[in-house]
Amino acid sequence: MTSILVICTGNICRSPISEGLLRDALERRFGGAAPNVSSAGTSGLEGAGAMPESVQAASELGIDITGHVARRLTATMASEADLLLCMARDHRDGFAPPLDGRAFTLKELVRLLQTLPAPAADAGPETLTERIAAADRARRSGAVAAYDEDIADPLGQPIEAYRAIAWEIETWNEQLVTALFGATAADDVAEVT
User: Fold this and answer.
1) Global confidence as pTM
2) Are 41 and 12 in contact (CB under 8 A)?
C-alpha cells in the first residue's frame, strides 16, 4: 500500500491538521484503498497531543484529531514513505540525512503537478509514485519557481491563526488530491455550479 508522511516541526500544529484532512480527502476518494497517511515532526515533541487550537480548527472542518500523538521524524520513517509532504521548506531541506526526490512542500508539489498532463480519469492510488517521480523531474527542470512554499506555523497564535492555517491546508490538500489523481465527476459538477 502507498503511504504519505506529512512533516512539520513539532508534529503538534500543522502536520496533524494536514494528516487528518488529507486522510479524509483520500478516503472519500478511494475508500479502503486510500494511501496510508501519517505525520511526524523534524523536532517532534514525542508523545505530545495536537495543540488544543489545532484540534478545534480541525474539528470545525469536520476532522477529529483528538487522538493524535506526536512523533519525531526518523530516517526509517522517511525511507518507508512514498511521498514526504512538508509544511515548509526548512522541513524539506533541513533534515539529516537529506530527504530525496520524494520530499516536497505541499504548495510546491501542487504547483509542479499542475504543470504536468492531468492523470487518467480512472487514476488510482497506485499512480502516486509515478506522479511523484514526474513532479520531481519537473522540479529539477525548473518548471516552477520557488516562492511562497511555506504553510505558516500558528504555534503561539490565537485560534484565528489556526483556523486560517487549517483552511489553507484544506484548500491545498484538495488541490493535491486532484493534481495527483485527476478530477472526479463530482469535481466537474462543482466547477459548473
Assistant:
1) 0.92
2) yes
